[in-house]
Amino acid sequence: MKEILCLSGEPWSNRLPGRTQQLVSRLRDARILYFSPAKNWRDVSFRRKGQKVRPNVTAYTMPPIPFPIPEARRLLFQMAWNRVGRFVRETAERRHFSEPLLWTTNPRQIHLLDKLDYGALVYDCDRTWDELPPGWEGSLAQAADVVFAASPLLADRLSPCSANIALLPNGLNLPLFQPEASRFDPMPGVTAPILGWSGTIRASLDLSPILYAAQARPDWGFLLLGAVEEGNPFLRQLDRLSNVYLPGPRPATEVPDWLYRCQVLVDLLREDQPFGDVISPRLYEYLATGKPVVSMLWPDQVEQFADVVYGAHDQEEFLTLCDHALREAPGLALRRRERAAEASWPRRAGEVERILTTAGLL
Predict the structure, then answer these.
(1) Which residues of 271-304 are buried (b: 16+ CB within 10 A; e: fewer)?
(2) Is 169 exposed, middle or buried (0-12, 13-18, 19+ CB in 10 A)?
(3) Are 279 and 167 in contact (CB under 8 A)?
(4) 348 near 190, Cβ under 8 Å?
C-alpha cells in the first residue's frame, strides 16, 4: 500500500471538501497523512492526536508560524520552518511511513523539502502566488517529479521549471446535483424569474453587472447565495433593491436546491484575480444543473465553454444575454450536464492515479 504525506493549504472538511481533499482521499490503496496549516498563531490544534477522517486518512494540524518572518531574517525563518518540518517528520515516523509520496500545494512548502524524508514529490498548483517570491514556486516545481496545473495559463507559467506538467482542472461533487433528486422550493411565493449566483461574496467580487441588471429589470429576481465579506462596494445599493435576495450561506447539501430554483445562473469576476483562467468548481456546479449560464469575461479572455455558456464582456451585454438565456430553446441542458460529468472529482482523481502510476510514483 502506497504512503502519502499531503501538505494541504486547507483544513479537512466534511461539509465543504476542497480540491486537495477531493483528490488525495480518492487515491486507492494508499495510506494518507493529511496535514493542514494552523488557523492562526494561537492555534494549538497540533497538540491533539490525529483525527481518522477516512479509513485510510488521518488528519493533523501543523504547528503555527507565529508571525510573518522575512526570509532575510534567516535564523528565525529557519527555526520556524524547522519546527513545522520536525512535527511532520516525527508524525510520519510514528506511523511507520517510509519514503512516502509527498504531495505539496503551496510554494511556501519548499522550505520543508530538506527537512522531510520522502521518495517522490508532487506539486499541485491551482492558483497564482503573486504575493510570494517567484523563486519559491519555481524551485518547488523544479524539484517535483510531477506538477499538476489547474489551468493552461498556470501550466504555461510553470513550464520553464518542469517538463512534467499535467493539466488537471477543478471538479465537482456530481451526485449532489443529480436532476432526479427531490428538491424543495427555497423561495416559495416568488413568481419572478430568478437569476442566481452561488459562492462567497468577497469584497473583490464585481457585482456591477448584477446592480445594472437589477435596476434595469425590476421584474426579474436576483439571488446572491453565500457568506458576505465586508467591504464590497456594491452590496449596500443591492441590499436596497426589492428584487435582490441575500439569504446568506447555506449548507452544501442545500445549494443544489437553490440553484435548481433559478432560471439562469451567473458567474462573475473578481478584481483581485484579473485574467485568470482557472475554472471554479462553481461553474461546473452550474453546468450540472443544465440551467443556462451567463458568465462575465475579461477583455480578450478565451471562452472555455462557448458551446454551453453565454460570455459577456460588459454590463449591457450581460443584460442582453441574460434576457436571451431566459428565452433559451430546450436542447442545451443535456450537453451542459455532460460537460459537468466529465469534471466529476472521481474522474479527476482517476486521472491523477493514472499519471502517477504511469510515472512509477504509485
Answers:
(1) eebeebebbbbbbbbbbbbbbbbbbbbeeebeeb
(2) buried
(3) no
(4) no
Given a cut of 80, is residue 72 above it in pLDDT?
no
H or E segment and range at residue 324: helix 315-326
pLDDT of residue 356: 97
As to burial, measured by CB atoms within 10 angstroms (0-12 exposed, 13-18 middle, 19+ buried), residue 170 is buried
The model's pLDDT over 9-28, given as tens digits with 9 standing for 90+, comes to 999 998 889 999 999 999 98
104 with 9: CB under 8 angstroms?
Answer: no
| Calpha distance 330→267 (Å, rounded) | 21
25 φ, ψ (degrees, to nearest 5): -70, -15
* Range from 14-28, 59-73, 133-147, 220-234 carrying the lowest mean pLDDT: 59-73
| Cα 103 from Cα 112, distance rounded (Å) | 12
Grid cell locating 91: 508524525
| DSSP letters spanning 14-60 | SSS--HHHHHHTT-SSEEEEEEE--SSTT--GGGSPPEEEETTEEEE
Residues 336-351, mean pLDDT to the nearest whole number: 96
The strands making up 194-198's β-sheet, listed across from edge to edge, are 244-248, 221-225, 194-198, 264-267, 293-296, 310-312
- What is the β-pairing status of strands 221-225 and 194-198? parallel
Q: What is the mean pLDDT of residues 238-248?
A: 96
Rounded to whole angstroms, how far apart are CA atoms 150 and 166? 9
Instruction: Encode pLDDT of 226-240 as tens digits.
Output: 999 999 999 999 999
- Separation of alpha carbons 320 and 264, rounded Å: 13
Confidence of residue 78 (pLDDT cuts 50, 70, 90): confident
Per-residue pLDDT band for 43 (boundaries 50, 70, 90) equals: confident
How far apart (Å, rounded) are the C-alpha atoms in residues 233 and 271? 12
